[in-house]
Design brief:
Elements (H helix, E strand, L loop, with lengths): L2 H21 L6 E4 L2 E4 H26 L5 H24 L5 H23 L8 H18 L12 H23 L12
Antiparallel strand pairs: 1-2
Helix pairs in contact: 1-2, 1-3, 2-3, 3-4, 3-5, 4-6, 5-6
InterPro entries: CDP-alcohol_PTase-I (IPR050324), CDP-OH_P_trans (IPR000462), CDP-OH_PTrfase_TM_dom (IPR043130), CDP_ALCOHOL_P_TRANSF_CS (IPR048254), Phosphatidylglycerol_P_synth (IPR004570)
Family: Belongs to the CDP-alcohol phosphatidyltransferase class-I family.
Function: This protein catalyzes the committed step to the synthesis of the acidic phospholipids.
Length: 195
């Protein structure tokens, strides 16, 4: 359990804390600025989410820089990412802040690509992250933050950035998933070999 893996585990442990602040049935005070309103628990959850999301790059950087890449890290890192994004998106659906179909599309893509990665690993192939995969992660995090903070500051100019960011995240997520499958179609052999 090296430093990089500890950071990854910390990211996993932050997931239930974020969900607690998002879904707890306690009335927290509101901050109100004109027509904009946000609760303190949303601010806390958003802050923790930003910290957790930022550790994704940090643990990978430390693992590569200090030559701490391990099989445990390869397993935990993508798991932590998916747990974080999935848990917060499901919480946002519960809060009525994002359409369920967008979350279903994003989660379906994440687990489909995870399945493809597992098949590739069984065949001794490592699927490297593509630029669209990285863009997908950035789009998802941007959309989640916008939703967590009630579209601040765009709400003051009546611009639905959170809705646009959610749609963009869904579209980029689907595109990056298709790209993964097209580029790695050799991993899946649908032909039956007969003896």
């Amino acid at each position: 359990m090296n430093l990089a893996n500890r950071i990854t585990v910390a990211r996993i442990l932050l997931v239930p804390i974020i969900m607690f602040f998002l879904l707890i049935k306690v009335k927290f005070p509101h901050i109100r600025i004109e027509e904009f309103s946000i609760t303190y628990n949303q601010i806390i959850a958003a802050t923790i989410f930003i910290i957790a999301a930022s550790t994704d790059s940090l643990d990978g950087y430390i693992a590569r820089k200090r030559n701490l890449v391990t099989n445990l890290g390869k397993l935990l890192d993508p798991l932590a990412d998916k747990l974080l994004v999935t848990a917060v998106l499901v919480s946002l659906v519960e809060m009525g802040k994002v359409d369920a179909w967008i979350v279903i599309v994003i989660i379906s893509r994440e687990w489909a690509v995870t399945g493809l990665r597992q098949i590739a690993l069984l065949e001794g192939t490592v699927m490297a992250a593509s630029k669209w995969g990285k863009a997908k992660t950035a789009a998802q995090i941007t959309a989640i933050i916008a939703l967590l903070i009630n579209n601040f500051p765009f709400t003051f100019v009546d611009f639905p950035f959170d809705v646009i960011a959610s749609w963009a995240a869904a579209i980029i997520t689907v595109y990056s998933g298709i790209e993964y499958f097209v580029k790695n179609k050799h991993v899946i052999d649908f032909s039956e070999k007969t003896q």
